Amino acid sequence: MFRAIADVFRAIGSTLAAVVTLPFRAVARLFGGASDTVRGGRRRHV
User: Fold this and answer.
1) Rounded distance between C-alpha atoms, residue 27 and residue 21, angstroms
2) What is the pLDDT of residue 44?
3) Calpha distance 27→12 (Å, rounded)
4) Residue 18 is inside which H or E element, if any?
5) SS3 of 46, please?
6) How far is the C-alpha of 40 from the C-alpha of 19, rounded, in Å?
7) Could you give the CA distance from residue 33 to residue 36 in angstroms, rounded to a whole number?
8) Cα Rg for the chain, rounded, in angstroms?
9) How far apart are CA 46 and CA 30, in angstroms?
């Protein structure tokens, strides 16, 4: 029974962590993608 309760808390915690980190990952992907396109553009012209 305690294991089931622990599993529920673990699931809630992982879901909460995903929701909290989602905006930060989106911003990082946005800036990472922008820098990749800039770098890619430079490589094509060289």
Assistant:
1) 10
2) 52
3) 24
4) helix 2-45
5) coil
6) 31
7) 5
8) 19
9) 25
Tokens of residue 32, six digits: 């990472």
**pLDDT at residue 28 is higher than 60:** yes
Our CA angle for 18, 20, 24, nearest 5°, is: 95
Q: Say whether 1 sits in a helix, a strand or coil.
A: coil
Torsion of CA 12, 15, 17, 22, to 10 degrees: -160
Of 11-15, 26-30, 36-40, the range with the lowest mean pLDDT is: 36-40
